[in-house]
Amino acid sequence: MKWNEKQLSDIFNSLKGMLNKGDYHLYIETLETITMNLSEKQFDNAFNYFISRFNCKCIYNDKYAYLLKGIAQKLDEKQMNNALNCFMDKLNDKNEHQNIRIKCIQIFERVSNKCNEQQLDEVFNSSMDIFTDGNHNVHVRMECAELL
To answer: Can you tell which superkingdom this protein's organism belongs to (predicted)?
Structure first.
């Protein structure tokens, strides 16, 4: 079935509202699929919405991290820079919850094949900083080691 731009927008907004319900897991894959079919402007709005809500400390149950990983391959260069900057800031913030830092590393892994050389250098340097910033969380260090 092929939907027009308004229909996709309406479906996206309805499903986006369902993310705040207890049974959001029933809708998340559909929301990812719809997001991948949005127009460029709509996709940009969806990306900004997801990234602004990426802050869940629960390692296994972050709907926004899941959605960001799912749509990562469609990011344009500007969106990729915004995402990488957001994730590098969270990764290098010693006060950020360890699970958020781990999710940032996991998203780096997912988008690394789409990064240009400069972006890869920045991700590498941010990841290496984990080993020199006095971070003693074994899980964060392990994720960085696997990424590198």
So the answer is: Eukaryota
